[in-house]
Amino acid sequence: MIELKDVYKTYTRKGISNDALKGINVKVEKGDIFGVIGYSGAGKSTLIRLVNYLEKPTKGQVFVDGHDLGKYSDKELRAAKKNIGMIFQHFNLLESKKVFDNVAIPLILLKKNKDEIRKRVLELLEFVGLGDKAGSYPSELSGGQKQRVGIARALASNPSILLCDEATSALDPQTTRSILQLLKKINAEYNITVMIITHEMSVIQEICNKVAVMEEGRIIEQGSVLEVFGHPQHPTTQNFVKTVIQNSITNSMQKSIKREPGSGIYKLEFVGQCASEPILYKMIRSYDVQVNILFANMTEIEETTLGKVIIQLKGDTAEVNKALSFLKNSGVGVEEVEKHDVNYSYN
Amino acid sequence: MMSTTVTTDQFMQAIMDTLYMVGMSLFVGSLIGIPIGILLVVTRPGGVLESKMLYAIINPVINIVRSLPFIILLVAIIPFTRLIVQTSIGTSAAIVPLIIYIAPYIGRLVENSLLEVNPGILEAAEAMGATPFQVIWYFLLPEAVGSLILSLTTATIGLIGATAMAGTVGGGGVGDLAIVYGYQRFDTVVVIATVVVLIIFVQGIQSFGNILARKIRRY
Ligand SMILES: Nc1ncnc2c1ncn2[C@@H]1O[C@H](COP(=O)(O)OP(=O)(O)O)[C@@H](O)[C@H]1O
Ligand SMILES: [Mg+2]
User: Fold this and answer.
1) ABC transporter domain spans which residues (chain A) (predicted)?
2) Domain end call among A220, A244, A268
3) pLDDT in tens, A203-221
4) Final residue belonging to a domain, choices A210, A244, A278
5) In order along chain A (347 residues), what is the average pLDDT of each group of 10 residues?
6) Which of A156, A190, A308, B24 is most open to solvent, judged by the fewest CB atoms within 10 Å of its CB?
């Protein structure tokens, strides 16, 4: 669907060169909602702008539907762009045109006839929930409504890919959520592949199924959102995950933990089905161990529940071991926290 | 009681001459200047039709013409004027230098208006796969219309000032009247009347431009 192969991008300005991308490899499958997250200046916008060739790679190749965009003539490239919609942080609507005409523009460029344009535009406005705003000017709309116009415009030419560069970064949390739901609906109903750039982990959590984490022009981690959220490897990824999943024991709790002989501290991870079963209860009933819950958190990612629990187990070594085996056999991830490890956090 | 040697007819004729000179040179000047402004914007580095060569030619030529005071331009191009309109005196002869004076000025003003357009909109246009012509026609110009009207208003007012000097080649107009009768023959009434007319012209044009721009912008 979308593939970036060993892509480098260097901007040169007044003799000073800036390596914005340093060897990017990304593969986005059809139907994915693919998120790219990173701090400002990481190279996210540069990356997404390569997908519709607003920027050309200095080195490497960009494939869309199996075609190398670098091999296209200008004309072929323009045709290919009709298949890729794009929405922007600041909407980029024509202020001088009414909502209707803004949405109609891609169709005018395609030289569709008036009736066809009218029908399609009204249908799109209805779809994005702005059926009554056709005659308004963008300046009369709220941020969320403007982005809906942007989305309708991006969908006008029936693209199979939608690129979103910080599309919700200028919006409040509630509006962000409603726009994300709309993107999800577009992905589900039209099977449009969505690529989202953001610096907010909550955006990734809300709708993405895959994620790539960027730093200084490189992808430092990528995979399914569940994988990356569940086991973030890189410190930057861990920082991003922390913003949406609380993952460490509170300070006062940490102070009150007594590391007695015969007791151990364990990080447990419940994924999916086993998060909804009374596993801890069963363990306590079956084995002679004392359980002290130090921390617990449940998060939903990709419609899967991810539970993180830190417990202290006290009891006979044999009983504790049996209890731990029971947990492992029930599909719970178990990891002992070393004695000298004072940072009881999930990463 | 103040008296004047200028008849009402003479005065009306002068007003008509001024309007004619301003109108004609604004019209032809725009026909030349607007495309120049567009060309400057699209050929500049990073423009949709980037062309180092074209930009490197147009840009300095405009600067050179723009750096000549109108009164000098007027005299300097007399041979050219004669070639075009077969005469070097009279209202028509004044229009040629007025056009050459105003076209590059309009070009610059148009360039500035177009550069004000939010670059994000051009990026959206490019992302839609618009051709360079479509970018200009469907995105750049509509977004700049309000600002373009204000630019042409400024150009018109500049032209009114320039027509006052057209008297040098017998161009007529209210400026000529003020110099010939008012200044050289101490006819205070003519001077006052001329000043009043010029103020009304300038105010009227500016207000008209402002209202039109606001109406079109609507934002
Ligand atoms: N057109 C450009 N010219 C020069 N440098 C650029 C340009 N666009 C981006 N950059 C630089 O490339 C780097 C990555 O920028 P960008 O892709 O916008 O990052 P992000 O979207 O993650 O904030 C930054 O250092 C930025 O300054
Ligand atoms: Mg960015």
Assistant:
1) 2-241
2) A244
3) 999 999 999 999 999 999 9
4) A244
5) 96 92 96 96 96 96 96 96 97 96 97 96 97 96 97 97 96 96 96 96 94 97 92 91 80 76 85 85 90 87 86 89 92 81 56
6) A190
Q: What pLDDT, on a 0 to 100 scale, did the predictor assign at position A346? A: 55
Q: Report the residue from A77, A139, A157 with minimal CB separation from B219.
A: A139
- Which CATH number fits the domain that encloses residue A169? 3.40.50.300
Considering every ligand atom shown, identify the ligand nearest to the alpha carbon of residue A166 and give its number.
2
Distance between CA atoms of residues B40 and B136, nearest Å? 12
Under 8 Å CB-to-CB from A180, ≥6 apart: which residues? A168, A203, A206, A207
Q: What is the ipTM of this complex?
A: 0.85
A344 located within any domain = no
Q: Angle formed by the axes of helices B91-115 and B141-163, to 10°?
A: 150
Residue B215 contacts A where some CB pair is shorter than 8 Å: no
Domain ranges of chain B: 8-217
Alpha carbon distance B162, B202 (integer Å) = 13
Q: Assess whether A184 and A277 both reside in one domain.
A: no
CB-based contact (8 Å) between B105 and chain A? no
Question: Who surrounds ion ligand 2 at CB < 5 A?
Answer: A 45
> What is the CATH code for B8-217?
1.10.3720.10
Q: Are residues A263 and A232 in the same domain?
A: no
Nearest CB to A108 within list B124, B138, B219: B138
B28 at interface of A, judged by CB pairs closer than 8 A:
no
Q: Which ligand is in closest contact with the Cα of A44?
A: 1
In a domain, A343, yes or no: no
- B59: its two tokens: 């840009």
Question: Whose CA is closest to atom 9 on ligand 1?
Answer: A46
Distance CA A205, CA A211 (A): 9
Q: Is any ligand 1 atom within 6 A of the Cβ of residue A317?
A: no
Of all residues in chain A, what percent carry a pLDDT higher than 70? 97
In a domain, A83, yes or no: yes
- The pLDDT score that the predictor gives to residue A99 is 98
Report yes or no on A51 lying in a domain: yes
Distance from C-alpha of A303 to C-alpha of A299, rounded to nearest angstrom: 10
Domain assignment of residue A117, given as a range: 2-244
